[in-house]
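Q: How would the structure tokens look for this protein?
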Amino acid sequence: MSIFLNADSKVIVQGMTGSEGMKHTQRMLRSGTNVVGGVNPRKAGTKVDFEDGVTVPVFGTVQEAMDTTGANVSVIFVPAAFTKAAAVEAIDAAMPLVVVITEGVAVKDTAEFFTYAQSKGTTRIIGPNCPGLITPGVSNAGIIPATISGGGRVGLVSKSGTLTYQMMYELRDFGFSTAVGIGGDPVIGTTHIDCLEAFQNDPDTDAIVMIGEIGGDAEERAAEYIREHVTKPVVGYVAGFTAPEGKTMGHAGAIVSGSSGTAQAKKEALEAAGVKVGKTPSETAQLMREIMESLST
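A: Here is the predicted structure in token form.
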């Protein structure tokens, strides 16, 4: 099993015919993803040839792609200025899962299309500014390299794309049920808590790695959720221990004011909820390694 993405996932790519869309559609296909279509109103009715004789049709709208292929996942690779329109189109078509890879999306746009998705109640948004999610060996929706790690029983949720990749590599000997990069913008669709809940309910996930970063209070809220609802072992890492106060860091959400949003405050909240928190990604991986080894004995 897995969360959000499985062998039944049929993926379309909004913006497939652009350079990034083409490159990453090929990577998704190579990793076993069932990509059933692309969407570009100007190229509707055409087809795109990929490696190994795979041909993917291009549709004019998300609704047409869904009606024709039965798609239930859309990955969005469109410029930031058009991301809101692409997301709204997918939401209007009641696409169950929409993965927004694009970075630099205006916070106002994200807030509007996420609120719209919530009002409709049929679409889960992951992102924006995220690497997507992968169920290794089964399906890959986004830009996570598929060769880092195979399938296993660790669940991973991370704000950071690069730390997603590092953690998958560090724990490749155990493997992952699903790894989800939720993005680091101030407003995102799927949160740490959403993923924690899904991993808690997934019978094939034994333990969870949660990667946060400075800024905001998402990690503190996740710690409270873990304390009240999660019985599986959780290890955590918070990026940004060396960040100076009052300075905006790399991700748009990472701004620290006083003790609010600091890595130390987040670490303390997580530890109070029973989460083991590593000081480095490698130390965090070692904590999870010890947990997985104890579960297998």
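The mean pLDDT is 94.

The CA atoms of residues 79 and 102 lie 7 Å apart.

Upvote if useful.
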